[in-house]
Amino acid sequence: MGKEDEETRAMQAALSNRLFFRLYQCANMLHKTGTRALDRHGITTQQWAVLGALTRPAFERGVAVGDLATFLLVSRQNLAGLISRLEAQGLVEKAVDAADNRSRLIRLTVTGRKLWQDDMQVEISGFYAGALQGFSTDDRIHLIHYLDKMLKNFKALDPEATSAEEKQAAE
Amino acid sequence: MGKEDEETRAMQAALSNRLFFRLYQCANMLHKTGTRALDRHGITTQQWAVLGALTRPAFERGVAVGDLATFLLVSRQNLAGLISRLEAQGLVEKAVDAADNRSRLIRLTVTGRKLWQDDMQVEISGFYAGALQGFSTDDRIHLIHYLDKMLKNFKALDPEATSAEEKQAAE
DNA sequence: TATTGTTATACTCTATAACTATA
DNA sequence: TATAGTTATAGAGTATAACAATA
Question: How far apart are CA A76 and CA A108, in angstroms?
Answer without folding.
Answer: 18
